[in-house]
């Protein structure tokens, strides 16, 4: 055992709650036992598991209470239904851990996930510790981490940059990380039922002094037909416009033109996706389509005025604004 491992073990012995794991629960009776069991079997034992029954109409609340009888690390909150964001906030209000983690009630994790993330956070003095994940439909699937481990660190601006590259999904989701509890002193989840990851993650990344990342896959994301990642277009997705408007203003105030331009570019892509989603499902809703088109014009102008714009995207966004069908045909050819 080296000195770092000894110091870490001393920290574990002297702390009652290293990590507060918050799980929002709604209609999860078919998955809850597997998810909770994967947490209780963690090699890092010094945690509390906060199960937040978000007014679930099935037997999830009763299952939570029964699980709590068998392990005093489990705390149960029963509340009226308000969505995952309000459930996570309720968990944050009572969390005692040095770090915070979020696990979705239909997912499960590797036995050493939190030990690995906690050690990385301590070794690299990081406010956020992040791992990789797999998306699966098979409960019997077993992760094989046979590739060479790669560990990277990012400062706050570099972490924000990962929202706009190949690390986007791994960066924007909540559940593959642990966070210093102090990050949530002034940050809470917005009262919304979708895009809450997108709405809060950039604030947490900016607030953190350092993020440490391992490419080890330690989290199993259950790929279900009704998951957000697979959900069909719904008009509720229009709330994304408010999320990105706030995000754009936040990035503008950073005085980092590169990050600001990338935020505008990704916003435009999202607006274009919204437009074609509306055209495919509610083509007669002219008011909504007009709203989206006007937003596209506004954001494309801001992107054009950014000193870090890419000329090809100015051309393509202008084409979309004038001839969406032609834009779509061209992008299909280019892709």
TrEMBL record:
Membrane-spanning parts: none
Limits of the Glycosyltransferase 2-like domain: 20-186
Keyword Oxidoreductase among record annotations: no
Family matches, as Pfam families: Glycos_transf_2 (PF00535)
Alphabetized GO MF terms: glycosyltransferase activity
Key words, A-Z: Glycosyltransferase, Transferase
Alphabetized Gene3D superfamilies for the sequence: Spore Coat Polysaccharide Biosynthesis Protein SpsA, Chain A (3.90.550.10)
Protein name per Swiss-Prot or TrEMBL: Glycosyl transferase
